[in-house]
Amino acid sequence: MVARIMEVFLVLVFLALIVGGAVVYMRGRKRQAGAGRAPASELPAAPAPEPIGGVEVRALKVSDVVNYEGRDYIVEGTLRFDQGGFRWQEHRLVDGPDSLWLSVEDDEGLEVVVWERLRGSALEPGPGTIEHGGVSYELDERGRADFTSEGTTGAPGGGQAEFADYANAAQRLSFERYGSDGGWEISVGQAISEHALDIYPGRGASG
Fold first, then answer.
1. Which one, 90, 97, 137, 200, has least CB within 10 Å?
2. How many CB atoms lie within 10 A of CB 148?
3. Total Cβ atoms within 10 A of residue 102
4. What confidence score (pLDDT) does residue 18 get?
5. How many domains are contained in the chain?
6. Is residue 122 in some structural domain?
7. What is the pLDDT of residues 129-158, one digit of tens each?
8. Of 9-23, 113-127, 185-199, which range is least confident?
């Protein structure tokens, strides 16, 4: 009977040694596997994603390329306005014989408007409401601002401009004239999301 008990005891001790050895082996494997890895806090951060289009609309300048509704336009000219410290820009976009204007204004939120010039219109600013093309526009703002011209805009190199802006929801109607004896430049516009544009640096741009 004693011999039987000793036999069982030895078997249990043998099994315990086998299990203990396996545990020590597995822990050693895990330490080896982790030895070549840096802690998560030391891993290099993922690079920040590049902005869509490569150029932010507020930084648009002459010679940049603007893709809008599937067409690539070159910025051929820029008008920069300053009204008592409040600034905005208007960019002339050209694709072959076609041209648009793009205004960028940041006043309690970014507003981007695509404009088309009206030719031969007899409209004049003045009344609080103007009807054009079946749309009733309400006067939004009227005033004067200093301006400078870069590239090809059709305006003088600098001076003072008078403007009157009308709006109906996202639709716009604008009057501008440069100098005391200039005629009114009339444009109709549509406010758009900045994400409707892809903008790329022009030739020779650094960075």
1. 97
2. 15
3. 24
4. 53
5. 2
6. yes
7. 999 999 999 999 999 999 999 999 999 999
8. 9-23
**Pair (65, 118) in one structural domain:** yes
Kindly state whether residue 205 falls inside one of the protein's structural domains: no
Confidence at residue 4, expressed as pLDDT on a 0 to 100 scale: 52
Burial of 135 (0-12, 13-18, 19+ CB in 10 A): middle
Q: Do 93 and 23 sit in the same domain of this protein?
A: no
Give me the domain span that covers residue 104. Answer: 57-200
3-state secondary structure 54-116: CCCHHHCCCCCEEEECCEEEEEEEEEEEEECCEEEEEEEEEECCEEEEEEEEECCCEEEEEEE
Q: Is 33 left (phi over 0), alpha (psi -120 to 50) or beta?
A: alpha
Domain-located, residue 80: yes
Same domain, 151 and 182: yes
Q: Dump pLDDT digits (tens) for 31-65.
A: 444 444 444 444 444 443 344 445 799 999 999 99
Let me know: does 108 contact 158? Beta carbons within 8 Å.
no
Whether residue 9 sits in one domain with residue 87: no
Q: Is 73 a residue whose pLDDT tops 80?
A: yes
- CA angle centred on 99, ends 51 and 135, rounded to 5°: 95
